[in-house]
Amino acid sequence: MTGGGARTTTLGASLDRVRLRLTAWYVGTFFAILFLLGVGLFATITKRFDRELDLSLREATHELVRVATVRDRAATASATRFIPFDSIRDLTIPGRTLYVLDTTGHSTSGEPVDPWIADLARAGWIHRGADRAFNAPHDRILRGHAEPIVLPSGPGLVAVAVADEIELEDRYTSLIVVFGVTSLAALVLVAVGGWFLTQQSTAPVEAAIAHMRRFMADAAHELRTPLTIVRSRAEVALQRPRDADEYVRALRGIEQDSTRLGRIVEDLLMLARADAGERPIEHHRVFLDDIALDAAEAARVIADRKLVSLEVVDFEEAAVSGDAELLRQAVMILLDNAIKFTGAGGVVRVAVTARGSSVSLVVSDTGIGIPAEQLPHVFDRFYRGDPSRRRESTSESGMSEGNGMSEGAGLGLSIARWIVEEHDGSISIESAPGQGTRAIVQFPAASIDVVSSS
Predict the structure, then answer these.
(1) CA 200 to chain centre
(2) Burial level of 102, CB count in 10 A (0-12/13-18/19+)?
(3) CA gap 125, 225 in Å, rounded
(4) Strand duo 130-136 + 140-149: pairing
(5) Which of helix, strand or coil describes residue 61?
(6) Mind listing the pLDDT tens digit for each residue in 405-418?
(7) Average pLDDT taken over every residue of the chain
(8) Is the pTM of this model over 0.85?
(9) How far apart are CA 436 and CA 234, in angstroms?
């Protein structure tokens, strides 16, 4: 028990490590996606903000050009000297600093301007428009745009609009904060969801490993008993010289136990192949009534030996698609259980009926039945019910889980259910203590055009 508990603890710790690693991969992958998305989004938005700022600066200079042109026309109409400087100061655009400079970069109002603005004005006049950025003190970035002003009645001028990118930084900051908070919340949700998903995804693995360990432990237990008996019989027979009859009896006992051991191994091998999907199933159009009749004839010898009547009733032609060998094995398992746990004078009945698209096989007995609390477990592997009930089966009637004509290892009904389900059928057990048991199997009827397949 201590060793088993230690192995279970080790298994749980290993699975926890696997879950943590999977969750870390989920979070890491999602973080990488968010990081790349954030970088791309930031670059795209930055480029768009810069484009929008440059566009707004162009619009501001265009407005300066329009106002200057209007002032020039008004001055020409009134025969006054063109004085656009003070008038243009009436134009105010929030967040923009506006300048009107001559072609050499000097302010028309006589106020000093920064050298980089003068350079921008000269470039704007020469190239008919120019853009420039300037790194100002205190980590500020200024962006400016210059447009030439061509007036018919006046000298050449240049309109300059300047903006501080601090407004972009404010917008970047708010965007980054929102994106960061959202990303952090998303990472938390991914971590929680990833842990849940890893638990869900590893649960079948954990269940499969636990099932495999139980299966191996149960198989070892079942195999140990006949092996111990065979060894004990051989040891007893070899302890002293015996006559021929005693050796014959010992060898017959060894043969019986070896037969039971071989049956258990065959059943284990079949279930192992079934679990691995390595047992090919041939699908042909076969008749379940013929298969059941053949199985009943084979089981009648055992029934007669136990003084149990085996009756075939409601025998109808019933075509199904399946593997005749496996179907016969399933019927034999049901008959085996019925006969094994039916006492002398009891009756086992077999019926095959066809109703439309469904074919039914019913094996019933008049035995002691199965307690209600055991019914949910009759298809479990290695389940054989109450030991007292198994002892009573030698002298009373009933049906229980098992395989073979002697006491089984509790694999028969598991094999029968697998066979039935592989043929798209269903199997159920109805029973009550003292009222007998009915095994009901239903298959879909085979169509006429069924051909062999695997």
Answers:
(1) 8
(2) middle
(3) 106
(4) antiparallel
(5) helix
(6) 334 556 778 888 88
(7) 77
(8) no
(9) 40
